[in-house]
Amino acid sequence: MSIKKRILKPVTSAFALVNLPEISRKVNFIALMERFNNKKILLSFLIAIPFLFGGFIPNETMMPAFRMKKIVLDAGHGGSDPGNIGSRAKEKDINLAVTLLVGKYIKENMPDVEVIYTRDDDSFPTLKQRPQIANTNKADLFVSIHSNAATNKSAFGTETFVMGTKHFEQNFDIVKRENSVILLEDNYQEEYEGFDPTSPESYMLFNLTQKAFIGNSLSLAEQVENQFRDRVGRKSRGVKQGPFYVLWTPSMPSVLIELGFLSNSTEEQFLASKQGQEYMASAIYRAIKDYKNQIESN
Ligand SMILES: [Zn+2]
């Protein structure tokens, strides 16, 4: 017995010593094969996806070309807010007259474009409501029409603004105060993707989202000023940037047009006349038409 034991024991141990790692290797190999097979199945599935769903994934040729279908026209001021006041004319009336003419020309000549007014009478939508109307309607363009004034009565000419933050530092306190309302909301960090209204750095990202439209906004602004200068013979003071609230929140290319200075008697007279309003409105209409053709051909 004792001999058997002595014989058996070493054999068992030898078997264990020699074969256990081998079994373990075999088990590992099987596990590896299974993993490999799983990976293969996963890989085959991933490769098959385009073939299975290819018909449903739109490719570039299937994507419809961009069409400018909706435009929001915003006549500045209105109601109890007259805007700038000339010797006789009020800004709100000139803005409305020109805006309604622009809309009329678009409706007559671009039947595929829907015109939405922020106001078509002597009412006063708030500054917040005006871009909201554009966003709610998913407009492709937002055009705000105003008239200027200056203490220097000899100042005259047109200018068209796009949203810009050149003077952002001066306005940071008020911007911060207004935007800090979001801190009261639950999940504001998630909701606003980490945007912190109290941090100037956050506005760098914030401004980037606005910059998505700056190319198209600048393109329209330049065409408007070119039309005023070349076709109506006005003095163009150029395309400028400004942190206007109405240009801040629209989610589409947006411009703010200053038709001229009501503080300048000659310009006031021109802008208050029916002919002057028709000239200015047709210039804006042609700029919008050229802009539409340009972006739709890209
Ligand atoms: Zn104005």
Explain this structure to me?
This protein is α/β, with parallel strands linked by helices and 298 residues long. It has a single domain (70-297), classed as 3-Layer(aba) Sandwich (Aminopeptidase), CATH 3.40.630.40. 54% of the residues lie in helices and 13% in strands. The chain has ten helices and six strands. The protein has helices at residues 2-53, 91-109, 129-136, 168-179, 188-191, 200-211, 214-230, 245-248, 265-272, 274-297; strands spanning 70-75, 114-117, 141-148, 158-163, 236-242, 254-261. A six-stranded mixed β-sheet has the order 2-1-3-6-4-5, with helices on both faces. Strand 1 (70-75), helix 2 and strand 2 form a beta-alpha-beta unit. Helix 9 crosses helix 10 (274-297). It starts with a helix and ends with a helix. The model is unreliable at 1-21 (pLDDT under 50). Bound molecules: zinc ion (ZN). Zinc ion is lined by residues 76-77, 83, 91, 146.
Largest sheet geometry: 6 strands, mixed
User: How many helical elements?
Assistant: 10
How many structural domains are formed by the residues?
Answer: 1
Present as ligands are: zinc ion
Which fold name is given in CATH as the topology? Aminopeptidase
Structural class: alpha/beta
Fraction in helix: 40-55%
CA-to-CA gap between the ends? Answer: 96 Å
Strand content: 5-15%
Q: What is the total tally of β strands? A: 6
CATH superfamily: Zn-dependent exopeptidases
List the defining traits of the structure above.
298 residues, globular, binds zinc ion
